[in-house]
Amino acid sequence: MSLFNVYPLFDITPVSAKDVYVYDENNVEYLDLYGGHAVISIGHTHPKYVKAISNQVQQLGFYSNAIQNPLQNQLAEKLKSLSGCKDYQLFLCNSGAEANENALKLASFHNGKHKVLAFNNGFHGRTSAAVAATDNPKIVAPINAQQEVDFLPLGNLKAVEKILQQNKTCAVIIECIQGVGGLDQSTTEFYQGLEQLCKQYNTTLIADEVQSGFGRTGDFFAFQKHQITPDIISIAKGMGNGFPIGGILIHPSIKASFGLLGTTFGGNHLACAASLSVLEVIESEQLMQNAKEIETYFREKAQTLPGLKTIKGRGLMLGLEFDFPISDLRKKLIFDQHIFTGSAKNPNLLRILPPLTIQKKHIDLFFEALINELNTL
């Protein structure tokens, strides 16, 4: 049986990894500045992470949500402590798309409305409503297109109000820093205005923190810089450091009832053990502070790059925007310099999403390699 060929693959086969490095079958060492789409938050094979999963699987790897699972309560408490989102409730699932799917469904249950408002260049997943709210028609099938979604430019409050006053929109979903779309973000004035409009028109505000959460921006969540209180917060990627887990944080104004949401694998024992270890390492190794410090160093080093238009993003969710397409440059970094980086919807943007454990010496290696390749273009 062959694989269903939907991924354009680089000819590299990783077989092991440690912290910020990945090793292929020929023992070639690659500096990982992409973390598998921002998934690797505390570094590959972190010893505390490996120990937590190993110990848990020896005891109990899985049972359904029909029984008590104290690990879920421990995870909720640790999340409350570290994120500062003290009054929220936690529902656990398996991925970012599933998190956003449940967030949109819950919003519609809550206020009885059916439309969604999303923003240009946003990405929220590949499932039913989540993909319909993603600004990429190429991945929206006809069955997904039955969802009613309005797309607006980021930052336009007047256009938002014009849509919301029609009283059909159940949710506004937004990435406070766009990921796949190209690391665009708006102003605090816009995000605070958006929150006020959602309250005024009984619309659920969903902060998609799937990529930007769990300390990646230097704050636990990207929205916290803007001092807003979303109704629902979706989480995944860095939450499990590679183990599949996602979830939504739900404001207490939204009430639970039996059967409202459900999942077979979500919040299983192994997933909870993985995420608990991630939170413990983020806290004990002060990785949010490290994200801020490395961002400052990164920006300083980037100032002298030839052809650079701007530096985008925040914390360790960064992008270098050049005045030319970066596709060839990215390939040279992988195959000639042995450094993983990422691309975006913006063809000129090189995305940098390393493990939060990255150090200044790794940034030095990257810029040395990048300058060498830029000088050959």
Considering the chains and any ligands shown, give keywords for the structure.
377 residues; alpha/beta; Aspartate Aminotransferase, domain 1; Aspartate Aminotransferase, domain 2; seven-stranded mixed β-sheet; four-stranded mixed β-sheet; 11 helices; identical protein binding
Topology, element by element:
Blueprint: E1 14-18, E2 21-24, E3 29-32, H1 35-38, H2 47-59, H3 70-83, E4 89-93, H4 96-111, E5 115-119, H5 128-132, E6 149-152, H6 157-164, E7 169-174, H7 188-200, E8 204-208, E9 232-235, E10 246-250, H8 269-284, H9 287-302, E11 308-314, E12 317-322, H10 327-335, E13 339-340, E14 349-352, H11 360-374
Parallel strand pairs: 3-13, 5-6, 5-7, 7-8, 8-9
Antiparallel strand pairs: 1-2, 2-3, 4-10, 9-10, 11-12, 12-14
Helix pairs in contact: 2-8, 3-8, 6-7, 9-11
Strand order of the largest sheet: 4-10-9-8-7-5-6
Structural domain tally: 2
State the CATH topology of the largest domain. Aspartate Aminotransferase, domain 2
User: What structural class do you assign from the helix and strand content?
Assistant: alpha/beta
Mean pLDDT: 97
Q: Which residues sit in consecutive blocks of at least 5 with pLDDT less than 50? A: none
Q: What is the number of beta strands?
A: 14
Please outline the major beta sheet.
7 strands, mixed
- Looking at the structure, what is the overall shape? globular
How far apart, in Å, are the first and last alpha carbons?
A: 42 Å
- The proportion of residues in beta strands is 15-25%
Cα-atom radius of gyration: 21 Å
Label the CATH architecture of the largest domain. 3-Layer(aba) Sandwich
Number of helices: 11
Order of helices and strands: EEEHHHEHEHEHEHEEEHHEEHEEH
CATH class of the largest domain: Alpha Beta
Amount of helix: 25-40%
CATH superfamily of the largest domain: Type I PLP-dependent aspartate aminotransferase-like (Major domain)
